[in-house]
Structures are given as C-alpha cells and as structure tokens.
Design goal:
Radius of gyration: 23 Å
Structural class: alpha/beta
CATH architecture of the largest domain: 3-Layer(aba) Sandwich
Distance between the termini: 57 Å
Bound molecules: nicotinamide-adenine-dinucleotide
Length: 432
C-alpha cells in the first residue's frame, strides 16, 4: 500500500519504517528540515534499538523516503497517518494544534479518496474535530480513523511488528477494510485487530496508560508503606505478582514514572473527564503520588548527609527509562535540580542520554565518560535509571573511586546484604 506518515518522531519513524519493512511504500513527512535532511542521509535523530538498521534497509530498497513536503506525501498515499506530538497544553489538556494543522494541510493537498488516521494520542472527540477540519477544506471523499499506538520506547520495533492488539476506530467499512488489510501482516501471530467506534478507540489508549501509571504509583505507595512498617517490597511484590488476576508487569517500585506519555496522558484524561464533570479521583492520586515519589530519593540523600552543601554526587541514569535517550519528564531532572539547589555538585552518566542532558543542564552539572568516571571523589552514588550495565558493577573498583561508599538506589538493582558486604551504606526503595 502507499502510505504517508506525518511526524517523524518516536512513533512516526518507527511506524513508517515498520510499514515499509512489510512491503509498503512509505513517505515520512516532518516539518523540521534538519531532521529530514538527517534521515535522508540515513541517520537517525533518536536512539531506538534496531531502528537505524531498519530505516537504512528500507531506504536502500526505496520503500522508505523522507520529505518536508506534506503535499507530495499526501498525493502519493491512500492512507495518511498523523503521528505528531500532542503535548500538555497550558490547562493540562492535550494540545491538538499540530494534529489539526496536519489535518488541514492534508485536506488541502488531497487529490482523491484518503483514509486519514490519527495515530497520535488524542482525547475523545478528536476524530470528529479532524473530520470537521478536513470537510471544510476539501470536496474529495475521505474517512477518518483512530488508530492509537501502544509501542514502548526502547522496544518500539518489536512492539510495532508484534503488537498485543491493533485498535482501529472507524465509522465506515471502506476504511476498516483498508486498515485491516494494512495491519494483517502484523497480526499473524494471532494478535487481534479490534474494530470499534472512534470514541472508544481514542479512549483505549488513555485507559491503558492510566492503568499502567496506576500500577506504578500503587506499587510505589506499597513500597513506602513497606519502609514505614519494616517489610520488604521485593517479597511483597513477588507474592502479589504471583496472583494470576494481577500478574508481574509494572509492579516495580522506583523513582516514579516519566517520559512523554504517562504524565501527559494522565493529565489529559483527568482534564477531559472533568470537562464532562467527572472527577477521576484515583487518577488524581496517581499523579500526586508520582510527583511525591520523584523526590523520594532526594529526601533520603538529604537525611543521610544532613546538608548537601559541598557534597559531590554521582548520578547513574538520566533517561526516563533504559534503552532510550528520552528525558522528557524524567525523574532525574527534578532530582538533580534538588541536589543542585541543596548545594551539591552532580557528576552524571547515562549510556545514551548525555546529549539530551546537556540541553537541559548545560554546564550546571558535569558529564562523565563512563559510569566509573562519574564516581571519582563522590560522596554518594544515586541510581535513577535501571540500565543493564549498572546491574553488575565492580564494587571494589567503585569503593576505591568514591570518597565515601554510599549508594542510593532508586531502582532496587542490588541485594542489600550483598552490597553491605562490600562495605557500602545502601538505601533503596521499600526495603529494610
Ligand atoms: P515526537 O515529538 O517524538 O515527534 C513528533 C514529530 O512531529 C516531530 O518530529 C515534529 O517535528 C513533527 N511535527 C509536528 N508538527 C508537524 C507538522 N505540522 N507537520 C509535520 N511534522 C510535524 O512525538 P512522539 O513521541 O513520536 O509522539 C507522537 C504521538 O504519539 C503523541 O501523541 C504521543 O502521545 C503518541 N505516542 C507516543 C509514544 C512514545 O512512546 N513516544 C507511544 C505511543 C503513542
């Protein structure tokens, strides 16, 4: 099939490359000329495992091309995906300006029937808004479809190629048939294609993210209670997760959720529920708990040292989660700001997010070449992101490098007894 994907970020680029991989002819459109130039040269502007190879291969086969010219993409395509950002607006709701701008420009460029697909995460009612905008600008026939994306950064290609489910909200059979045909190769393993109305499809994405955020905040609260009563969250979690009604995913306590999706989608869902006079109380608490949890390690470090003035802190992990360079809403940001405000100096290391970190902190912190270099002369190590390379470090080497051997582990990477045997003071989340 001939496809245009508008917006070449985490979702658009992965979707475009994966559609091309399955034999479709894909034009990826982005309004950022620098990004498009980079992609045209076969370079990937983001870090996502396996994406560079996928893009290079499909580009070489001429199934995947990049342009800033929306018109060229639209004219060539049967299906136009909108995969632009829907950031949090000033009042907390999803800002739809980019989605509606693309819808308008798509309509102006149309030269026949098109299926216009919302892949961005958008509040209920957006398909209707897009339909309205397009109708005003064109006399050509079209269908609007909601096709929310569930991929996870860090495993985006695997998620896209083998989704748990594909959700398609469509109001007419012509569009549902085209979409089902497009996704058929992705669902050979038996994953369902779920056809539904647009409003339900739009809500699916928010409900799923809200549920995942709820599990994280819930488990963080359980961990905090564990600390208060002297229980061990590792053991509690294992027992809870063994219940088949609950399962093990998203039950790890930590420093709170971040990223470009959970925080903004939780906010947006609260907003569109309250616009209909529904107070989503659980979700309000999920958000409040998360804000508090992001600063939990700061409290522990402050309590340990009394004052942070003049302390040298090593920070391992800056990205909001492993296998990405994304620092949007990363817990590392308020945490590091708290350390700096307290008068500490911060020496940070992340395997992929250093370039992004420089745009946030500039010269306020220093950037280490590797995890050990960050430790030189440190009064404590603070672990924020659970990159695999932090899981089995050389503790003896770490002790030699640090001024005082103290570790504040926001991801429970080590066994407390093991690390204390190495001579470290150790604090983690929800464990004695
Ligand atoms: P992103 O910010 O990485 O990428 C958006 C891209 O759209 C940018 O490259 C930007 O230049 C481009 N763009 C904006 N306006 C444009 C326009 N008018 N014309 C052409 N290009 C334009 O965003 P993302 O992380 O890929 O997210 C996109 C959407 O998908 C959001 O709604 C997000 O909530 C949703 N989503 C994201 C993820 C994720 O893990 N990142 C997962 C599922 C869903």
């Amino acid at each position: 099939m001939k496809i245009a994907v508008v917006g070449t970020g985490y979702v658009g680029l992965v979707a475009g490359a994966c559609f091309a991989e399955n034999g479709n002819e894909v034009i990826c459109v982005d309004k950022e000329p620098a990004k498009v130039r980079l992609l045209q040269r076969g370079k990937i502007p983001i870090y996502e495992p396996g994406l560079d190879e996928l893009v290079r291969r499909n580009k070489a086969e001429k199934r995947l091309t990049f342009t800033t010219a929306l018109e060229r993409g639209v004219r060539n395509a049967q299906i136009v995906f909108i995969a632009v950002g829907t950031p949090t607006g000033e009042d907390g709701s999803a800002d739809l300006q980019h989605v509606l701008a693309v819808a308008r420009d798509t309509a102006k460029a149309m030269n026949g029937y098109k299926v216009i697909v919302n892949k961005s995460t958008v509040p209920v009612g957006t398909a209707a808004k897009v339909r309205e905008v397009v109708r005003r600008e064109t006399t050509h026939p079209f269908s609007v479809v909601s096709n929310p994306e569930f991929l996870k950064q860090g495993a985006a290609i695997e998620d896209f190629m083998k989704p748990d489910r594909v959700v398609i909200g469509a109001e007419d059979p012509r569009a549902s048939e085209l979409m089902s045909e497009l996704y058929a190769p992705f669902t050979r393993t038996g994953a369902p294609i779920m056809l539904m109305d647009c409003a339900s499809a739009e809500l699916c994405k928010y409900a799923a993210n809200a549920m995942l955020a709820t599990r994280i905040s819930f488990m963080n609260e359980v961990a905090n209670v564990c600390e208060a009563v002297g229980a061990n969250v590792d053991q509690v979690r294992r027992a809870v997760a063994a219940d088949r009604r609950i399962g093990p995913s998203f039950l790890f306590p930590g420093v709170g959720y971040g990223g470009s999706c959970f925080p903004k989608d939780v906010k947006a869902m609260l907003k569109f529920a309250s616009a209909k006079e529904y107070k989503f109380e659980i979700l309000e608490s999920v958000e409040a708990v998360n804000e508090r949890q992001k600063l939990r390690l700061l409290g522990k470090v402050q309590k340990h040292f009394g004052s942070l003035k003049g302390k040298r802190l090593a920070v391992w992990g800056l990205a909001f989660k492993p296998r990405t360079d994304d620092m949007r809403e990363a817990p590392s940001v308020p945490l590091i700001r708290g350390f700096l405000d307290g008068g500490a100096s911060v020496h940070a290391y992340d395997p992929e997010a250093m370039t992004v970190a420089r745009t946030i902190f500039g010269s306020k912190i220093s950037y280490a070449e590797n995890s050990y270099a960050a430790l030189t002369g440190a009064d404590a190590l603070v672990i924020v992101t659970e990159w695999n390379e932090f899981r089995e470090p050389d503790f003896a080497r770490m002790r030699k490098l640090m001024r005082t051997p103290a570790i504040f582990d926001g991801r429970n990477l080590y066994k407390p007894e093991q690390i204390r045997a190495h001579g470290f003071t150790y604090a983690s989340i929800g464990r004695p």
